[in-house]
Design a protein that fits this description.
This protein is 41% helix and 20% strand. The termini are far apart. The protein folds into two domains: 181 residues, Gcn5-related N-acetyltransferase (GNAT) (Aminopeptidase, 3-Layer(aba) Sandwich); 56 residues, Orthogonal Bundle (Arc Repressor Mutant, subunit A). The protein is α+β, with helices and mostly antiparallel strands. It has ten helices and eight strands. Strands 1-2-3-4-5-6-8-7 form an eight-stranded mixed sheet, with helices on both faces. 34% of the residues are buried. The radius of gyration is 20 Å and the shape is globular. The site of coenzyme A (COA) has 21 residues, from helix 2, strand 5, helix 4 and helix 5.
């Protein structure tokens, strides 16, 4: 069982997908998700997968003092808190970390994996100062390949023969790497495609939010953007609503946490 006094781990969200530490109550959903044939086919989950496997995994990986040694999250889709997948990072202690993930069948088909991976990798680059996240999938796992490419992983087209083993058998793999620059570029591309991962902010609201993060007053923002102070107020109201914040500073904190804005350097 997970000890209740364990420290909370890191929670991340883009307004649609959230990552939170796994908890004991996730075990039944995790057991169901890991018995899915696609999970068995493309990952190293034990098979057969029993409730006790999920309980054991959770008790090893739930939030605690050593959580950041091997960050492990449950993927949930808002407003639901149900375990709907998992993401984990295995840092190598030398600036790199290997990425692992799966989604439960009920959460697939909406691009949630890419969102979850962006959150996890973005956090790891800033909080763990990683230089690279490494990825591999058994050759043929097209859904995983597409999700990784969407996040910005650079993946050569050839297979790496017998690269990794699965339950005692070596398999050919696709292999890729993601640097902070790769992630930034992919987020920019996503923004340009109006596929922004944040909570549906308009381009103008994003402009205002970035200026709020710099501590600018409404009047200064209005002058800079060539709009009235009243219009700025309306944008701020809408930003607070979308970020579910009760004040400007709360909105900025929330935007920083979501990676929508960065602190001025
Ligand atoms: C890999 C996985 C996490 C992707 O989940 P997802 O976010 O629901 O992925 P989607 O269904 O949105 O598919 C991702 C992309 O692959 C595409 N895709 C899915 N199946 C595909 C297939 N068989 N052939 C080609 N493309 C495919 C989708 O169209 C989508 O493309 P888009 O990003 O351009 O929209 C999920 O399929 C899964 O859990 N699989 C089993 C476990 C696993 O493979 N884990 C990863 C191990 S490396």
């Amino acid at each position: 069982m997970v000890s209740p006094e364990r420290a909370p781990g890191v929670v991340l969200s883009d307004g649609i997908v959230s990552l939170r530490p796994v908890t004991a109550s996730d075990a039944p959903d995790m057991a169901a998700g890991c018995q899915d044939p696609q999970a068995v086919r493309w990952t190293t989950v034990p098979t057969p997968y029993a409730l006790s496997d999920a309980e054991e995994f959770i008790s090893e990986r739930a939030a605690g003092p050593t959580w950041a040694d091997q960050p492990t999250w449950a993927v949930t889709t808002l407003p639901d808190d149900r375990w709907s997948g998992g993401v984990d990072l295995r840092p190598d202690g030398e600036g790199g970390a290997a990425l692992g993930y799966l989604l439960a069948p009920w959460a697939r088909g909406h691009g949630h994996a890419a969102r979850a991976l962006r959150l996890a990798c973005g956090w790891a680059f800033s909080a763990l100062s990683l230089e690279v996240v490494t990825w591999f999938a058994y050759a043929g796992n097209d859904a995983s390949l597409q999700a990784a490419r969407r996040v910005g992983f650079q993946i050569p087209p050839h297979v790496f023969r017998s690269y990794a083993s699965q339950r005692g058998r070596r398999r050919d793999c696709w292999v890729g790497t993601l640097t902070p620059d790769d992630l930034v570029t992919s987020v920019r591309v996503a923004e340009a495609r109006r596929d922004y991962l944040g909570p549906d902010l308009t381009r103008r609201e994003l402009d205002v939010l970035r200026r709020l993060a710099r501590g600018e007053a409404n009047r200064a923002i209005a002058v800079e953007l060539g709009i009235s102070e009243n219009t700025v107020k309306n944008h701020v109201r809408s930003i607070l609503e979308k970020l579910q914040a009760s004040s400007r500073s709360e909105a900025v904190v929330s935007a920083l946490r979501l990676g929508i804005v960065a602190l001025p350097t």
